[in-house]
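Recall that a protein's primary structure is simply its ordered list of amino acids. Everything else, from secondary elements to tertiary packing, is in principle encoded there. The following example makes that idea concrete.
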Amino acid sequence: MTGGQMDNVRLELFGSDPKIQKAISVSRNVAVTKAPVLIVGEAGTGKKCLGRFIHENSNRAQSPLKIIDCSEDAKTVENNILGYRDEETQRFHKGGLEEANGGSIILANVDSLEEEFQKRLHKILQELEDYDIDVRVIATTTKNLSKLVGAGRFYRGLYTLISNNSINLTPLRERVQDLNLIAEHFVNQFSSEMNRPFSLSDSARNKILSHYWTYNVHELKTVLESCLGSTSNDVITDEDIQIGEKKSVGLLNDDDSEGIRLMSLKEAEKLLIKKALVHTSENRTQAAKILGVSIRTLRNKINEYRSTGSSFFVNLR
């Protein structure tokens, strides 16, 4: 019934849908190898969650697991992966590859890597043994990397290295039975936490099942938590569940928000727009809705960032 323990870490992998069960089965099989893995799926489908599952079901489970978000600022990403020397103290800070030695590293949103760094990283990954580093690479993406390779927007060598074992995660909205089960799980969880016996009416279930969950499990949890925290009803109806642009899920997690406070507003704006485009697979209309701006405003911002030479925006289709 489940793909691992039924807890919050692996909730995205919960369900009986044949597609999710196949993904879990393939993950178990590949976990016992050293081979790199590419996990493909929409935002919120559980790509990093599945990466953890692979690590924890391998013989590397007792060794470190590092997660690097490649959609962050290019220099930050490079430092996080390779390490860097502090200009003031001259102290060297290890990167994820060294910190995860003996374990695994998850390169989330790998498609966002700068083009030149993709080539450099490919070379480094091939030479890790020369540096006495043994690390298993797990990459995630929301995009079709083979198409990006064909368009000259992703380095073929790196793609070949990470894509031999590719696992696809199906969106939650296409797993209707699982969507119902996970909604029930959240309702029961919040009932316990709030010490109130919440339940879903048929109208509420229908609304949940008919909604296009852009951010999958993460969005579902956020909507239900908001709903149960603000209603006086124990039986939740469709009117209690507020789903719309104003309730859209934030694009930054807690770790991201800590970083944002250290940025200028201009840098934060650029990063937020980039994340919106990454999470919507570069669908500008959808990204503009999430950001709460007009498509014209978004287009102007993209053109502004292109003029500064930012490769992510220069390479946007």
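The domain at 254-314 is CATH 1.10.10.60 (Arc Repressor Mutant, subunit A). Residues 288 and 295 are 6 Å apart (CA to CA).
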